[in-house]
User: Fold these one by one.
Assistant:
Number 1:
Amino acid sequence: MSINEDSYDVIVVGSGGGLVGAYVAASRGLRTLVIEKTDVVGGTVAYSGAGLWFPGSAPLRRAGVEDDVEEARTYLRDVVADSSREGVQDAYLRAGAQLIDELEQNPWFQYFAHGPVPDYYSSRPGATRAGRTVFPPALAVADLGERYELVRRSLPTERWGFDEGSVVSGGRALIGRALAAFLETGNGTLRLNTVLDELVVEDGRVVGVEAVSDGERVRLRADRGVLLAAGGFERDRELRERHQQLTGEWSNGAPGNTGDALRAGIAIGADTDLLDEAWFVPGLIQPDGLPVFHSGTRGGIWVNGAGERFVNETRPYDQAGHEIVRLHAATGVRHTPCHWVFDQRQLDRDGIGGPPDEPLSAKWLESGALKKADTLEKLARVIDVPFDSLDRSVKEFNGYAATGTDDRFHRGETPWDQMFHHVVGFPADPRQNFPAKSVPGFPNQLLLPIDTPPFYAATIVASDIGTKGGLRIDENAKVLRPDGRPIEGLYATGNTAAAMSGRVYPGAGTPIGSSLAFGYLAVLDIVGPTD
């Protein structure tokens, strides 16, 4: 039994990228409610660098980047290679630049900036080395005031108590700015600790939600529409076992992402797509036993359970993550977890899990997250792989180091790889990258030989930054039935919706860009052409 029935124009379920859509609705005078199942806002966006892959947007022009949306369309068509997604791709390309123009009119959002991250499939038609990714500006904690406590902390802060200081960047800056802008419209309401249970349908139209708020059941009415923006189902073991190989314990998604919105949509007849997919990434196991998203390996090699190297370790993270998952399923050889093997010279140059100059914490060795041995033969025994295979893999790699060319997996040849001559970590996120150091005497700094004892092995697993399958939507973010008809009054965006990019990750900022773009398109449809 519902204890009340509060009424709004628009209800947004979830407070990650959907918070920007909520702002867009509230800024147009719509009474807008955001419900969030946890006690903070931000979802997985708060963990991210907040890149937005928005071709043709104003920040690119300000940076002097020549970017033709038609070239981006050519690129998307080629890498996704799925004609059924062309309509939503076109909608995405229209919305991104338009949304940035609108957000930059509000002083809370200020001005976004271009980040030079190459498109991930650099050899494909329409790809650009300069990239099409834009980022929000950093934000002083003092500017948020008491609202700062409402924003989800970064993953390092949640996991290890990392002190973020007086300025937040990346996803936390985007969420903080969106939250302030939303609340200051005077039309926005935020309700935390409120879990979606089911959608309310009248005469075939979604008119609200039933939820559990602080332990009490409530009915919340939406006169104009409901936008589902509650993330994916990466933290739900049952759904992942049903649809995927992985079960979620190694996910880097936010803890509240358990598929509530997906289930609610399915319950009223929504169609789904890509439920077997995720934004897979390599995860480096930390001393606490859990992984963090790992990108841009500069040295050493990854070997599988047979002691064999199997991938370009520096390739774009989604491609590397998918390759781990694919080979684990297809070969009968364990690829997750696998082993990152390197030597003392590599550790001295780049460190592990932090700034290159930071001394190795004893926790790495004490916990077993990092294993150490005087010889490769001893290391092979410690990580339980055949020494002859490991020795062969290392010798082959050392040969490539001598010539500067990785003949087998071509590490260091793409624009993405070549960024890591200059940085350690993830180039797009200022919290996670550091100036790279070089070792004289080697032709390719991404191919240093593994020959300086002692030797080390860390653990790499198939992780993710969210699932990417969900409710099928149209060009206006309307949720569709299996026959293609929309469910009136219901919209979806972000990882609650099936990705417009299909099974690929075209460039940095595609997931969050999609969340913002389709949330924006949903609100434009709700408002209509005459409002």
Note: The chain has a mean pLDDT of 95.
Number 2:
Amino acid sequence: MLRSIQDIDLSPKPNKTYWANCDREWREEFIYFLLIDRFHDDQLRKPELQAGKRSGFGNADQLQTFCGGTIRGITKHLDYIHDLGCTALWLSPLFENNEAAYHGYAIQNYLEVDKRFGTKEDLAELVDKAHAMNMRVFLDIVLHHSGDNWSYKDDIEPGYYNGNVYPFGGWRFEDRPLPVELRDTEVYWKKGRIRNFDTYPETREGDFFGLKSFKNDESPEAMYVQDILTKIHCYWIRETDIDGFRLDAVKHMGEKNIGQFCSLLREYAYRLGKKNFFLFGELVGSEELYNKYIGPKTSIEVEDKAIYYGLNSVLDFPLYYVLANVIKGHATPEKLIERYESLRRNAMARGEFGEFLVTFLDNHDQVGQGIKRRFGKDATDGQIIAGVGFLLCALGTPCIYYGTEQGFDGAGEGDWNIREAMFDLSGNTTNALNKESGIYQEIAKIAAIRKKSSVLKFGRMYIRKLSKDGKDFHLPVFTDSLIAFSRMLYDAECVVAYNHSLEHEVEQYVTVDKYFNKDGSSFHYLYGGEGEVHMLKSKDNDRYFIKLKLQPAQFVVLTNR
């Protein structure tokens, strides 16, 4: 077993041809995010067939501990993810964790896969089989903190207070954490638990609940631990041929540290022949905060004049916070307009593709949100399809959380309520991997359309003005409006529209581009309808538009090409 950072070999593996990450840009991906412990175990099971939405498996007691999901369980069911239309897989952290940590974020050994999930060889096999399906694999990693691997004096758990350093108590294990270089008390802040997650420097220096934070400033100790963490994650690229990392708790790290880490990881991937290595982060905060972590950054070292490039993208929390209520009709579409205007203002500070964030409806980590709930809670099948459809057709790199495609509807005060199992925890014969589900099939249809459409993947996005009479046009700021936007690429236009009412049919005129479309042009349906919709124009020829009549919760995609 590897014990020291000195034990790892970072030279390319002999006779290994590393996957060059196919010919897709990262913004083309449709990502499937799963918790390893919750997706599937090693048992041979059959799906429970159900036409519409369903709940996941597990009760409160079962979901607060290990459920038995494994890496091999994922490998055996890659076809389920692939056939949904997903092109990339994001795995929850899988390094050896503290005994009670099923979620993977409490790491005690960075050099081994947690044996409850499987082995390094299992991971390499999963990656190889995903690559054979032309799918990328991303790992969730944690740089801010380790697991609960040591205690404070007298085994207290102090809270952060004015930057005070608390006495070290002792290591909880004789031979952890690993590598052994992390058994150095000077690489940890030792300042107690974060009390206020929005206060600096507390949010960077404090412990993440009981998980002990590494130093992450510009001190020699911080540079030392960053070098260790960089080599560790290069090692996992070398060993398993993975294609990217999702960085946890980014706002708890310095932006220069993140920039240097990301650049060095990309450089190592290039050394192995891997292109387009994708690095995205979890950053819960203002849109302006994103700008500090995406794109080019200056060096930490005064004498180093190099430019380092940070994250490619981050998870789009501003969209997450408004989209569910708009899709369900609880908020006016005006909230979406405000969100995309904020995106436009900030994107130019992020370098290439700064407007492409990783978009999502469901999230496994809803700290500070009171009652945790899946998007499927109190949603109809049509609303779930429209929600994922919106992500697939709008600006961004769409990500679906496991179980959303089956309509999982977990809710409650604890995070375990939204971390259901996809397999029966009280038996060993059934699972929820139902390809016959209506939600699954409709999402797969929209994903297939996006996969073929350069317009939906790369096009500019415009929220469209609407009218009830073909004369007075306005942005969709009323609850009885359609939601409509266009994606435009050179001379092609796709129109995406949705009626977010569950009660009323809505008929409105939708603006289209007057330069892309000529007199007599028409749009035809790619999804959600049949036939053609002829283009109309105002009497002064100043505005072109189409007329749409949508049933409650109807979602449609049209194109002029």
Note: The radius of gyration is 24 Å.
Number 3:
Amino acid sequence: MSTQDLVPSPVGPVDVEQAEAALVERYPRLVRIAYLVLPPSLGRNRRVLTAHALVQRSLPRRRVTGPAVPGPRPAEDAVDPGYAYVRGEVLRQALVAGLPLRRLALPRRAQLPPLLPHVWGLRLFPRVGGADELALDQRLSRLSGPGRAAYVLRGLERQGDAEVLRVLAAAGVADPGAALAEADALDDREDGTAGAATEGPDDGGDRSGGPAGDGAGSGDGPAGTGGGEPGSGSGAGRAAGRRSGVALLESDEFDPCALQARPTDLLRRRQHARAGVVAVAALLVCGALLGLPGDGWGRNGAGAPSYARNPAAEAALDPARLKRVDPAVWPGSTRQDFSVWPARGALVGDRALLRRALAVWARPGASVRSSATPGTPVGPPMGPPQLLFAGVVDGARVVLLHDGLRAVRYAEPVAGTAGAALDFARTDGADGVGSAALVLSRAAGNVRYLTAPWVAETSARNLLAPGEEARPLGRDAGGVTEPMTSPASARDCTRWNTLQVRDGSGLRLLADLGELAPARLLWGPPEAPADATGPEARAAWARTACQLTAVRAHGVRSVNAWRFARQPLPEGAGLGTWLCTRAETWRGTGSRVLAQFLVPSPAVPAVLAARSEGSPACGVRDPRVLAGVLWQAPAGGWYVLAAGSPDFAALETSGGVKGRSDGPLLAVKAAAGARADLGGTLRDGTRARALR
């Protein structure tokens, strides 16, 4: 008979309820079938769990209708339709589970370890049998999956060969006949003992069976009976072998429902537990990293992770606790500084933006571009800071904060999350003029300011054009000025715009030196300087403004230019002017002093004669200065010119050029390129050296 002539067993229509009833009623037998058909190479623990999983997954999803086979069925092969269907599903899955995995093919569900049932920390296996069960298990392991299925169907299920062939064909076996032949071969091996017991008497029968002396009779009957047909002894032995195999198949050795439990490898389990803890920790770290700002702002924006938690630090980072000054406070206040600035801007109510600004201030991340003026601490605020401004300016969300010591500017782009910036500037001790404006934005070479509420008027004045009128600079209702060209990042000195403001007591001139707080420009002696807004001051600053690049980004609070001497020039070349420019810093140290010489021509910029850092010269503490320069007259002669403040009684030069004069002025003829040492004597007799 070929496999093409086989048809499935006539199970008839099968309901889910009918199949479930058969599965529950005969669950131990179905699991035993699956256990026996599964390859022993899986190991007993996995075979047990897989056998239970295959049976539990064998219920149909809906009503199944099976084809009917004409003709009577053998009574010994008759089975319940529900049981027949479930058994077929169990066999099909068990045969699939025994197939080898292919490298490029996706594994089928039955080939994977079962998800359920699952046991942690224990190994389960059936009870150990005797030597016969062990021998049978070894012989079954040498069979193919279909061969084991045929053996189990015929031995455990007591199916006839025709029904075995049908069931195997329905389970997807390509060659059921070959599988049945494997089962026959296993039966032949098993009849070695059972067959010998059947054929045991000799071929003459029971030679002593008749009465003594009745030799003829004893040679007929028994001998004819004992001779029989050839092969009858072998058939009886195979039947006995099958009966022996059935008994073994039903033993506890092959019962996956009667189990023993033992622990798994405890040392390996401990190693796996440690590896699992490390893996979970790594996963949490990766999750935290993925939660940082990428395609969107996180809770803290570009701020780094928290490094400390205490009530004061948490309060300082809470946007709800920011100090907000009412606009009606400053007119009645006894002081005018940043402490009475009202909170302005369209985003003062954006708590998410304010939270990000505070978080970045406290913990700027690696992607934040941060800057600070020299001597300005960059740590978190001591407590809740004051909110000055929050709004959108030049395509960025900008937040200005103040904590009594520093002004802090936070900026982030409106589109995207890259490019957050944080700027610090020291502003302690600021008065009404020092707190008149803060830089709000720099973009495309322009600058915008946020002005104080007491500033009544703003304009832009070019220092290099003292004869020009200041250009009005508009502001919005929140005090934000229109953009104007900034000299802070200019490569040349063709224009030097300053912010001119008018408050309740007069005009002020403020210069952008690349910091949050603009520097106040002054004119006059150190003990009584005035704002550089008059004609004489503007004329002097027009020739010295380009020297302000020497104090850019230095934490400068104010710059005062002082004309400390006028000197008649040799050969009737006119009257020269000596200026001392001193830049004071917010931190009090690091002041810079520049001594400059101006020839009579107003179109010629000032010549830098000397410079010093940290010197008290030209300041309130030491309002004295001495400087010299090598000058060429229009007629071609060279001279060493020197001038001191009015406190000098005499000047002298030494080295390459020697000369002396009584008074604060000196002019000595010299050669081109000559070098000289300059000194002087004060009216009290104290010796002083010139700036270098």
Note: DSSP finds 14 helices and 27 strands in the chain.
Number 4:
Amino acid sequence: MPYPLDAAAVRTWCGLALEALGRERERIDAINVYPVADGDTGTNLYLTLESAARAVEAAFDGHASAGTAPALADAIGAMAHGALIGARGNSGTILAQLLRGMTQVLAVAPDAGPGSADALRRALRCAAAAAYEAVAHPVEGTVLSVATAAADAAERAVAETAETAEPAEVARAAHRGANDALQATPGQLAVLGRAGVVDAGGCGLVALLGALAAALSGEVSAAPVAIRADAPLPEAAGCGVPGREGPGADGCADPHAGGPAFEVIYLLEAGDAPVARLRARLDRLGDSLVVVGGDGLWHVHVHVDDAGAAVEAGIEAGRPYRIRITHFGGTTRAEEPALAARAVVTVVPGTGLAGLCAQAGATPVPVRPGEPPASGELVQAIRQARAREVMLLPNDPELRHTAAAAAEQARTEGVRVALIPTRSAVQGLAALAVHEPGRSFDEDMVAMTAAAGATRYAELAVAERQSWTMAGVCQAGDVLGLIDGDVAVIGPDLARTAMTVLDRMLSAGGEMVTLVLGADVPDSLAERLERHVREHHLAVDTVVYEGGEYAAPLLIGVE
């Protein structure tokens, strides 16, 4: 029997969609040739929807605690917000905007009754329009075309049945329309036609709409997605071609050879006007630009050669966080990216260090203070590195168990992972500096571990309240110098405390000092510390890096 379009239906939709994308993830990954043939569209869609589903469950739990039931607006709003904050890749970002477009209509629609079918029709239309607006340069033959076709089919269904339409009928019509449009994508986009595959993002949307139809009709089917793109389809969507292993099986993929080297993604707290300027700036920097969201919270996705400039643009527009920078591994877009022999995945506390590590060829996992990455995020970063062997640098003693769990999971997926026991970002930089993919795996692991172990590390922080420490009692506002994780110095200001810390660390010897400055630290501090080292410690070199936002005021490494 058909079900009403209400909060329970949204919850069921999330569960069924997550199951469908989980089943089809690998096959959607395999046909991913546009805009970059990096084989992760299915995974990105799954992770985005997983975040959406968690948000919906949290909404239901919150209402249950209060003894109330969520309304349609609560559930669909939570789904859209969860997708926004958890969006992965180009496909996940567009999915988040599709859901946001639906929310703009359904959040003010009745839970059930004569208007709910028409509300779904209007929601699908709004979703398609919102997705087109979010993409800087829309391309036909992609998920955008599939979304438009779904909205067109929903329009026809409502028009044909007038006031008797049920939401389930509209959802089934949208699903069928999306199926048909998906099969037309190879004829609309040359790269898909040459590769003999349908659009991967569109394939994910068809799975999502199929789950919506099932949630509203009660007719759940676990039938696998058809893999023929050149034959009539059954009720499920087609996502591939016969006799092919995946994208580029005939040597064809995206025609844009020599494309940008990095994918940059971040959440951004900013107003509408700064975001409009950000769009224009990022559009000049790269391509595949998608900016979604609104009401002060945005999700930014772009492919660029200068990852640091993309992040800096976000800082100028507002407050970027959850920054992810992925290196495409030096492949061109005219070829399917082969697995690299060995890669480095490193956790970094700061936007500047993230850009620095990315430019060195590593896959950075940027983190904010107090928001350590989950093991799943590290596993995803290992997958994005696309290498048979990975050196994982946690750069924090508190992450050793999380990193170990991620390494174990990656090993079950066939990736050889070495967990380098780095306890600080400066130890990570030292390990990365000696990384040599041409060496054997074991030799590289030993060299990186030795370099990290030979680097003493320190961090300067500002005390937030009175507290007992290993160096005595500190007051709020005091500058704390932590050496190898323990408070060793309490000082009145950053410069004098840093000099004392440097003197203590160099008293045991050293040849190289690394300074990583936080975003709010003046450049004059680096000059002052360099001069201090030069005048008081002979034959010691100093190198300075900008840590950027979210880095500690000062990190020090002594090798």
Note: The two ends are 70 Å apart (CA to CA).
